[in-house]
Amino acid sequence: MTGYxxxxxxxxxxxxxxxxxxxxxxxxxxxxxxxxQHGITGMLCYGNGCFIQxxxxxxxxxxxxxxxxxxxxxxxxxxQLVYFEESIVRLFDQWAMKFAPxxxxxxxxxxxxxxxxxxxxLLNSITIGPFIKLLSTQQGWEYYI
Length: 145
Ligand code: FAD
What we know:
By secondary structure, the chain is α+β, with helices and mostly antiparallel strands. Helix content is 35%, strand content 32%. The protein is built from four helices and six strands; from the N terminus they run βαββαββααβ. A six-stranded mixed sheet has the order 4-1-3-2-5-6, sandwiched between helices. It binds flavin-adenine dinucleotide. Flavin-adenine dinucleotide (FAD) binds at residues 11, 27, 30-31, 34-35, 44, 51, 53, 55, 65, 69-70, 72-76, 97.
């Protein structure tokens, strides 16, 4: 199959309010530029001190970004790869990067499936796929390619 890969990881990111906004804006600005140039689309979601990001694109572009840059970025910790699949379609086909803060539908997913507040470290082999599909339907701050 020729096509794309879809990769998702989770990580921890604790900041006070001011440095949170500065770091986040820096990450989003870098992301939209790099991702647009390399045909990568995706979504970054933040809540309760945790990120979950889904990245889609050609395998070499997505793996280079994750393993050579994001995994080594000291701004976040406890980075774990939680999903990797090949696909002929993109779920996040319009966005070089879209950011979604925590909202009721994401909260409800964790309450219904994990009886817990939003905590991406609880996602498992059954819930990760549906959660990524839910992410792809979220409203957020959109950065078009
Ligand atoms: P440089 O800016 O030269 O970075 C060199 C090294 O320092 C890299 O390891 C970098 O990760 C790290 N670094 C950069 N800025 C800081 C800083 N302020 N404090 C500490 N370390 C720093 N980039 C994308 O292109 N696309 C994405 O989708 C994307 N998503 C991200 C999601 C998260 C949660 C985080 C934390 C980062 C994300 N990044 C993303 C940023 C990515 O990790 C790199 O910082 C970016 O790609 C630039 O790396 P570089 O090696 O080209 O440049």
